[in-house]
């Protein structure tokens, strides 16, 4: 057979790096990770400080604008974020088109993609003001879209956003309030959610963020790019891990079954992995997991949940696995998702909404990364286009239907 490689001009040397473990796809000033030391910085600020001392607006502004806001900038930013929490009424009809048992992440992929049709200015990605508007509107509208996804999937009436509340409280209110009853958001739970949102905002070039950048490199509509990020986040190896952790802890069921789970995780013939353990970049404790573990204890204490079976299993599992040579040698330690599921469950968030919450938070990182990519594209346009190592057939003659067997 003819070797087609001999016919085409050489395209030069390229690297073969499945999973891009050693490939930098862009330069960025947003997030720094030191996987060996377990350090995560947003624009140079430590994630633990941002989560413990700052609020949602501080981190969202920081990711987008490169600096922490002054009091005046923060007030303007808050107003911009709060002013656009409502979505077009027509969009609400989209939710009714989904099957009653559709996963909320499927719904979110659809409705966020559909936003492209409702935000006409967004197509003008060459205009910096339009780009910023897309970023702000995306952050504003995400909690509303997420809460509607939850409520329509349950047949509950939609609760409109209360703009007198802060971002996290507004989200909890839209999720759990009932039109005929008074509902006060618990400030301790709202603060816990705020910390979860801050911790998940950005994590440099993970699968979903790379997807957003790749989609954006073709100059696609920014809302469509965010929808592609939501789709990538859904998988259990990425954002779906918090849901998978809880299902795993429930399956383990009791502390005495932990050795069995560990043995399965080590068995290469068994596809089972310890969910919430391991990370492509962190080969030590994920710094977000440390904050999350603290939040977990605070929330359970506040709610006076003394004996939480899943927390007991989680703590024991962490203790055993982090002393087990298999996990230590491979640098497999708890990641952010290990404890976040237990906190979300305590907040009353249903399992199928865990990854949606992650998407609400990660939207801040996605838009910051998309904006940085779009600015770079204005200077030097370059569509993302990886090469491949072709291992299939070379040119072969077409076989007519009657001659195939
Ligand atoms: N349980 C058991 N073994 C594991 C686990 C785990 N959770 N994670 C990795 N390993 C093992 C692999 O089997 C492999 O072993 P080997 O060298 O003997 O073949 C070794 O550790 C390296 O694993 P890779 O798959 O090459 O690591 P990679 O960096 O590609 O994967 C990932 C990272 C996907 C996060 C992986 O650790 C995993 O599947 N973890 C569980 C899912 C999870 O918690 N995902 C959330 C990530 S954080 C986030 O998205 C916010």
UniProtKB/TrEMBL annotation:
Shown chain mapped onto the complete sequence: 41 to 445 of 484
Protein name (record): Citrate synthase
Pathway it works in: Carbohydrate metabolism; tricarboxylic acid cycle; isocitrate from oxaloacetate: step 1/2
Reactions accelerated catalytically: oxaloacetate + acetyl-CoA + H2O = citrate + CoA + H(+)
Known EC number: 2.3.3.16
Superkingdom, natural source: Eukaryota
Keyword terms, alphabetized: Transferase, Tricarboxylic acid cycle
Annotated family: Belongs to the citrate synthase family.
